[in-house]
């Protein structure tokens, strides 16, 4: 049951990414292009996504457990830290270069052609390389 | 274009409803980089099947919609070296920051998480600067 729910939720997420324009790198780069021909579409995407999710957090706060059991995620970590800023800057640079973030990169793999495949493989390599790099960064921080 | 904004709003609502359902039904935060990242680096062996099911739906269902409509395009650059560098940065950055547009952006901001807000300010800021440098100064993208 959990697997069926996850499959269809992933699908709904992906169709939302497709319809909203998040899988179209022209729209994404257009949104980031504040000093050029700025495209505000992504502000509507973010707004449209945040509202139902804000309601969901309110509902979760009043429930003991999720519908299929288990526990709700713990409250957000209050500490910011260097990794959050450094990682977000690296991610933003990659997002600005190609116009794809992780969700749309996966959702568009069937129609993204060779370029989409190159992006996904490189992204996975980056994800595999991240934990050792993160450990060495943290090591230097405490040393 | 106003029509694009309406599609943005409708698609955005679908993203938000998906995130809401993943929280209220499965009890999980719908963060794309965490879902794929913990699978490929094997850092969270429990519930791997659930994340694999999510990713399978994320590939197959929009893939079927795109096949049916025949209009989906990513408009990615043809410069594969640039794409590879971008992909590497996205993979590294999202796992170092522990989240991307869906995790920090949608799920974080909607619960007023300071980490989600700060991450979103930095990745949009860095993305905006990158577009300025590479599009307007170097003319690469």
Task: Write up this protein.
The complex is a heterodimer of chains A (143) and B (141). With 143 residues, chain A is an all-alpha fold. Chain A has one domain (2-142). Chain A contains six helices and no strands. Chain A has helices at residues 2-20, 25-32, 41-62, 82-98, 102-107, 113-142. Chain A is globular and about 45 Å long. Chain B is an all-alpha fold and 141 residues long. Chain B has a domain at 76-141. Chain B is built from six helices and no strands. Chain B has helices spanning 2-26, 32-40, 48-69, 80-96, 101-109, 114-137. In chain B, helix 2 packs across helix 3 (48-69) and helix 5 crosses helix 6 (114-137). Chains A and B meet through helix 1, helix 2, helix 3, helix 4 and helix 5 of A and helix 1, helix 2, helix 3, helix 4 and helix 5 of B.
Structural class of chain B: mainly alpha
Largest sheet of chain A: none
What is the distance, rounded to the nearest whole angstrom, between the alpha carbons of the first and last residues of chain B? Answer: 22 Å
Binned, the helix content of chain B reads over 70%
Structural class of chain A: mainly alpha
Task: Give the C-alpha Rg of chain A.
Answer: 18 Å
Oligomer: heterodimer
Query: Gyration radius of chain B, to the nearest Å?
Result: 17 Å
- Write down the domain tally of chain A: 1
Keywords:
heterodimer; A: 143 residues; mainly alpha; 71% helix; 0% strand; globular; B: 141 residues; 6 helices
Describe, in short, the structure shown:
Chain A has 143 residues and is mainly α. Chain A has helices spanning 2-20, 25-32, 41-62, 82-98, 102-107, 113-142.
How does the SSE layout of this entry go?
The complex is a heterodimer of chains A (143) and B (141).
Chain A: H1 2-20, H2 25-32, H3 41-62, H4 82-98, H5 102-107, H6 113-142
Chain B: H1 2-26, H2 32-40, H3 48-69, H4 80-96, H5 101-109, H6 114-137
Helix pairs in contact in B: 2-3, 5-6
């Amino acid at each position: 049951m959990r697997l069926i729910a996850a499959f269809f939720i992933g699908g709904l997420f992906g169709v939302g990414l497709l319809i909203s324009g998040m899988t179209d790198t022209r729209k994404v780069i257009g949104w980031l292009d504040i000093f050029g021909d700025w495209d505000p579409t992504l502000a509507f995407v973010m707004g449209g996504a945040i509202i139902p999710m804000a309601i969901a957090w309110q509902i979760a706060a009043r429930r003991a457990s999720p519908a299929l059991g288990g526990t709700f995620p713990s409250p957000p970590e209050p500490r910011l830290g260097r990794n959050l800023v450094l990682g977000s800057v690296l991610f933003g640079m990659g997002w600005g270069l190609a116009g794809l973030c992780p969700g749309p990169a996966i959702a568009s793999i069937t129609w993204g052609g060779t370029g989409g495949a190159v992006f996904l493989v490189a992204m996975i390599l980056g994800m595999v390389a991240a934990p050792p790099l993160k450990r060495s960064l943290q090591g230097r921080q405490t040393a | 274009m106003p029509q694009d904004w309406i599609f943005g709003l409708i698609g955005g609502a679908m993203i938000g409803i998906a995130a809401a359902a993943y929280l209220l039904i499965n009890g999980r935060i719908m963060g794309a980089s965490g879902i794929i990242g913990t699978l490929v680096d094997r850092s969270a062996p429990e519930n791997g099947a659930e994340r694999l099911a999510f990713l399978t739906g994320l590939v197959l269902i929009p893939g079927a919609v795109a096949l049916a409509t025949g209009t989906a395009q990513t408009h990615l650059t043809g410069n594969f070296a640039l794409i590879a560098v971008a992909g590497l940065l996205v993979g590294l950055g999202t796992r170092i920051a522990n989240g991307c547009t869906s995790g920090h952006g949608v799920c974080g901001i909607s619960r007023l998480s300071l980490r989600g807000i700060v991450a979103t300010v930095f990745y949009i800021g860095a993305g905006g600067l990158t577009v300025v440098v590479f599009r307007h100064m170097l003319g690469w993208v």
